[in-house]
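Standup notes
- DV: blocked on the single-chain target, sequence here:
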Amino acid sequence: MFSFYLSKGSGSEGNLKIGGYNLDKYAKPGAQDSDIIWNPVVDDGWTINMNGLKFKNGAKLDIKAEQLGLDTGLSYALVPPRDIEEITDKLNADQNITCHKEGYNDLDMYECNCTKPQYSKLKPL
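- DV (later): unblocked, structure below
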């Protein structure tokens, strides 16, 4: 087991803890061990099973993917092509955030433009 905390910018230090975790640093204030959701990995990597996706407010996305790859080293999300349209359509309909496709060799990238107020109103997944 290991856990990591990414720096929040200047004056903040990241941390990698091997053999445990620190709820005070990695979780919301007042969290307890029982608040942690454990997920077994599917393969040798950072892939977990997924049976749907919804926003914290309960709005569901009709995605088809059955697995989710986790990677702390990426500044973007890898999304199956069959699901990206559902996600970008939902962002546009619910938040008025527009996304457009940008090709990069064999990897299609989507960039979503939003203002700081729009970003602050986004609900967690």
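- Follow-up: The beta strands are 2-5, 15-18, 47-49, 53-54, 60-61, 67-69, 98-104, 107-113.
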